[in-house]
Amino acid sequence: MTVPSEQPSVQSSDTTLTLAGEFPPATRDEWRELVAGVLGKAGRLPDNRSGPVEDLLATTLAEGVTVAPLYTAEDSPPRAGAPGLAPFVRGDRPLGASPNGWDLRQQHTDPDVAATADAVLVDLENGVTSLWLVLGEGALPVDSLPVVLEKVLLDLAPIALDAGPLTGQAAEALFTLAVERHLPAPALSGTLGADPLGQLAATDADTDVAAGLRLAGELAARCATERPNLRAVTVDATAYHGAGADDAQELACSLAAGVAYLRTLTDAGLAVPDALRQLEFRYAATADQFATIAKLRAARGLWARVAAECGVTGTGAGPDAAQRQHVVSSEPMVTARDPWVNMLRGTLACFSAGVGGANAVTVLPFDAALGLPDPFSRRIARNTQSLLIAESHLARVVDPAGGSWYVEQLTDALARRAWEVFTGIERAGGLLAVLRDGSLAETLATTWAARARRLATRKEPVLGVSEYANLTERLPSRAPDTRPAPRGLLPRVRRAAPFETLRDRADGQLAAAGRRPAVFLATLGSPASHSARSGFAANLFHAGGLDTPRGGGTPEEIAAAFRAEDTPVACLCGTDQAYAEHAKPVADALRAAGATRVLLAGKPGTLPEDAVDGYVYAGCDAVEVLTGLLDELGDRA
Fold this sequence. Notes:
By secondary structure, the chain is of the alpha/beta class. Helix content is about 45%, strand content about 10%. The protein contains 20 helices and 15 strands.
């Protein structure tokens, strides 16, 4: 077949392929005109509009950062540099994580020494490349470290210790083990996990921070002289994420902690480049992939700015100024109900961490909120990472988000906001000061209250919990996590907690009364006409563990079906037209049949005030509604 001359091959040396070249160029003003036309037809174009039309489609994030509906080259922020060079926004390595991927790090908390010793070997034999060992009360005993690591090749597997108040003893045990095995100085790698500020914030309000800082300085000096590939300090930003911080606040707190540790280490005699090398940062990754990617890219740029302020500057700053990141799938996003969905959340978090340029990644097992993970959940956690590395080839692309105008803008905007919060903390006396005077806790509480409102109204859904709950699920049984409850200066939050508390209450009523509390759905009209609102109502009530039997037909038939279900609460479900014609007689029939509360699925004001006792609708406070219903139904049970 001969290719006609007027259709030259795109591989021809004298042909330039222009994307969308056959279309006339479009301008932003033309786009605005078209968008305005669509919004006008939808009735969403205000008569008194003063700003550009895209302002109507913009979204403001919790951090105060505005996300626009359209990004073009006109929106491109300042250049982020090249991978492997300051400011390291695009990664701390010129070739990214390729060819073998990031450090796949698995966490172990089981106090059963023999079981953990076996588990770490299974992990290392099946793709894990480093170990995160939690030691102390309710977790692994410090003196068990030689047993747990007996068959681990410490020159191949980095060790990350997490021992809280026992950091000094755990570090000494690891040093001793390395000496006993005659490991060369560079062979031992990982982190000793000193983080007295994070400990004060998250786990122990009685932490002796001064002693912890002295220990951090001593360990850092020892690592710098004896074990050059071992880091002494972990800046655990998940302590602030877990207290409800937004991404900018998480970044700001990590910078404030990092600066505090830099002061400590330089006071202990380390040069600034040596002190920088002693820090590893731990961040949370959520299922919001773009937010996580931008956060990790912004974190590296911000830390490079701190390094520059400390005199480590320029594109030749080298790896000293590059932030080393250990990224963990978010603990607050893990659910106890419908825990299998956590596999999907963990996958998205891991993807985001990999694209964002993390050095080490931990995916929490899907059953983490239920107790100690079992072999299956640990296998899924590690295979999630292995699949993204080996089959998706995610690590073979250097800074895959680079060049996206949206991601670059989001990175820049988030970094600017985080720097504002960080400098505010520094002006207030530093992280320790704002922790002790309670101002940080108050700020984070305000942030979390706003988010809790979005969760309660289901504007931020939690699948399997606040949306599409499965009342017949059988949760897997897990051994309890025996670590003491956190008692730091900051609280610990979980997105699903309010709804899971409601589910627990409903299950308790089921166990006590032999029947699940229920709301009867009185359906008006044909299935096609009522299915939208009956489906909405069922979805809402299931989130609180309430059953939703239903019945339709004439008012008399609905009342008879309601009476058979033996519940005092009913909810009318139908179209607005059906409500206007049938809601009043059906509500009267239900009350005559014993209903003490008649709700309506629709916006408040749909019917006269005395027609129904309340409304359920998109955007209502589901937690408040469900709590009230469980109070009423529980008293009856």
